[in-house]
């Protein structure tokens, strides 16, 4: 029916032109040509109507609450596109019957799809790694020469008026891992934000970061030795965060978390009651509009792989200094970081108390280049008297904000007296809409 | 050696912490004033125009800052957690920094799709909506259209009207107040527009190049023509080959004006200017871009003074 209406409309619109043309050139050949012309114009009109319908349907979902035109300050034409279309949508929708799209392939269904993103992390390594056998046995073997180290798939969406959900699936060389998958309750009373699911624990800074936002190609020695390495403290549990009142423009935030108790080689849950916990207190202050400091203290406690009677306690202190000149945000910035971790691990014959830290700095020289350096030192959780040292120098190139190429020279001096000289290089690239990460 | 920890003990601890934190006072709406946080200073200016003394307005981004690349600093959370209304530009301008701030704020009022989240792009005339297939090969394109729509006074009027309606909905008792403020703003804007249009009238159809595609609404309103951008694609830094093409084009078409936002480096624009004899005009696209630009009217006064001077000199 609508097709016929459209056809009539097109004919009516075209009639004066046709009539005029006929008066001048009544030849039959011309008529055929014009008929062809009409057909073309009708199909163009039809396509336009379809496009408008699709746009209207999209806008109805995205912006259903168009403010009522309670009053109009000046008798100016309404915005050409949005509100009228949104209002028309229910009437025009479905005018052209379409076969039902059970696979969710209709434009409406796509609107409700979560934001999907993939971040590729291609990592290469050359040089001598010289990893001591003890560490190799603990799963810290040398990196392969070339590897698609990780492909992180992000699925993120608002669930309902009360919560949002974020999934990060990490495809490594040996399988798939739900790196994080949690529900965030954003509408709780009294300013609480709660998370339920599998998540990276709020212990310190590095542990909370995904690989692709690290300023290095690897994680610091202290993370490798004391805080579970790349996987880190990452477990199923629940988390409660709240901004706490503080004087003098200080931002103070407390986080408390309870987990099942299984995290890499740090915590192991042998029975249901073997929970692990973590707490983080963060203080932040803007020193001026360009510079700010971020300080944190962390605590985590859980049972270790020796059994329910054996506990591991972790204490952490982190400090970050940011400098970003607001008039040149995309050209220059500096981030200085330091993190200190103390580990106390129950084991036989004696409890092990290890300490480790890293300190690093990154300076963005211009829009495309960033230089950085990191110093590492860490004892080992199970043999605290063995301390490894390391140093890294980094250079990062940004072709655009969606890809980066990074080189890292890494020197490691293992406690056993072995030295490693390695060159790591990384290509990282991002597809789709990956939600921004917290500061 | 045995220091057992159990769920019940820690859950109780967590609960206690939650209770203590719940007891901490949450700031309530002060004396009936609506607390507004806007993402940009332009929206803050418009909200202040219609809200008058019945609102408290604060902006996250500064006027001299690139609104695409604001750091999601925790200090902004202190503003957001108390806000009754969050006004955003939308069209993915703030996508790199606003969503985590909203989530972390712990403020149910400003969550997307709740009453206090207000995206003003729904009222504006949006230009440069990409058609066909959109890929990142086109640079950092905004799939829903160019978000720099506030640089057309017509759009400011529409946005102000939208904000006034929203404020009236939130505080129905002040409806007449917001309406009269809006009518006053609109009248002043109409008068100012007449002066601005007259100022720009002699330059209709003149070609300019810009650093980023920040100005389509502005150029359209004042009937200027964009001949190209210094960025080869939105968000991609200048490249030598593109710069060379631009120089040749500017020489050929006699383009004498280069508009640059204050947050971009002047090295490439200056080099182009040396080659072509064009003038570089550093023009703030937002309120607060310079000290004297304290509101939406002064933004246009300031920019048009700079631009007309440069256009006259180029004649």
Question: Which short descriptors sum up this protein?
Answer:
heterodimer, A: 439 residues, alpha+beta, Porin, 2 domains, 16-stranded antiparallel β-barrel, 19% helix, 44% strand, B: Rossmann fold, Rossmann fold, 4-stranded parallel β-sheet, 43% helix
Q: How many domains make up the 3D coordinates of chain B? A: 2
What percentage of amino acids of chain B are in beta strands?
5-15%
Shape of chain B: globular
Major sheet summary line of chain B: 4 strands, parallel
Q: SSE order of chain A, as H and E?
A: HHHHEHEEEEHEEEEEEEEEEE
Q: Specify Rg of chain B, calculated over alpha carbons.
A: 23 Å
Outline type of chain A:
globular
Strand content of chain A: 35-45%
Please tally the β strands of chain B and state the result: 8
**SS-derived structural category of chain B:** alpha/beta
- Assign the CATH superfamily of the largest domain in chain A: Porin
Q: Give the end-to-end Cα distance of chain A, rounded to a whole number of Å.
A: 56 Å
**CATH class type of the largest domain in chain B:** Alpha Beta
Mean pLDDT of chain B: 91
**CATH class descriptor name of the largest domain in chain A:** Mainly Beta
Report on the architecture of this protein.
The complex is a heterodimer of chains A (439) and B (315). In chain A, helix 2 packs across helix 3. Chain A is globular. Chain A has a 16-stranded antiparallel barrel. In chain A, 30% of the residues are buried. Chain A is built from six helices and 16 strands. With 439 residues, chain A is of the alpha+beta class. The model of chain A is unreliable at 4-27 and 58-97 (pLDDT under 50). Chain A has helices spanning 2-24, 28-62, 82-92, 107-111, 133-137, 221-226, and strands spanning 115-128, 146-160, 163-171, 176-185, 192-200, 234-244, 251-259, 276-286, 291-304, 307-323, 333-345, 352-364, 369-379, 387-400, 403-413, 419-432. Chain A folds into two domains: 2-64 and 79-97 and 105-109, no CATH class; 114-432, Beta Barrel (Porin), CATH 2.40.160.10. Chain B has 315 residues and is α/β, with parallel strands linked by helices. Chain B folds into two domains: 30-130 and 137-194, 3-Layer(aba) Sandwich (Rossmann fold), CATH 3.40.50.1980; 196-314, Rossmann fold, CATH 3.40.50. Chain B has ten helices and eight strands. Chain B has a four-stranded parallel beta sheet with strand order 2-1-3-4, with helices on one face. A four-stranded parallel beta sheet of chain B has the order 6-5-7-8, with helices on both faces. In chain B, strand 7 (257-260), helix 9 (267-276) and strand 8 (279-282) form a beta-alpha-beta unit. In chain B, helix 2 (41-51) crosses helix 5 (153-170). Chain B starts with 6 loop residues before the first helix and ends with a helix. The model of chain B has no long low-confidence stretch (mean pLDDT 91). The chains are: A alpha+beta (439), B alpha/beta (315). At the A-B interface, strand 6, strand 7, strand 8, strand 9 and strand 10 of A face helix 1, helix 3, helix 4, helix 5 and helix 6 of B.
